[in-house]
Amino acid sequence: LSILLLNGPNLNLLGTREPGIYGTSTLADVEETARTAAAARGCTLRAFQSNSEGALIDAIHGAAGTAGGIVINAGAYTHTSIAIADALAAVGLPVVEVHLSNVHRREAFRHTSYISAVAGAVIVGAGIEGYRFAVEHLAARLGAPAG
Ligand code: DQA
């Protein structure tokens, strides 16, 4: 079983980007956390980050037939991109949405997510651990045995 991990715009800057909000873990740390959680369930993880909406959509399309499910932190595209939500709906794989910060205690424009309407689960405010929870949930949902 393969899981696709997608990270959107500005998440390549994790570690130095607003550490008071997003913590000091890097994108490499995030991907390693997710990969370790996947491996514990006997799953493989493919990780991709892009600052470009179109590249994220292409990666979602590419998941059809190659991944069992998708973990996605779409960054600010969460709040703006009908196109990413449409791509997730089109592919029809199970989706877990992750946000490092608790978006609900931040600015009002972060309170709405187009992704949530196509996600089976949403994890916010747990920091880097949220990616581990997301992978564990998705692996369980996909029927991967616990490690
Ligand atoms: C984020 C929250 C978004 O509102 C923001 O635009 C991000 C990161 C998070 O992980 O907390 O880029 O998705």
From TrEMBL:
It comes from the Bacteria. It holds the Pfam family DHquinase_II. It catalyses: 3-dehydroquinate = 3-dehydroshikimate + H2O. Gene3D superfamilies: Dehydroquinase, class II (3.40.50.9100). This is 3-dehydroquinate dehydratase. Signal peptide: none annotated. Keywords: Amino-acid biosynthesis, Aromatic amino acid biosynthesis, Lyase. The record marks R17 as: Transition state stabilizer. PROSITE patterns: DEHYDROQUINASE_II. Homododecamer. Its EC number is 4.2.1.10. The gene is aroQ. The active site is at Y22 (proton acceptor), H99 (proton donor).
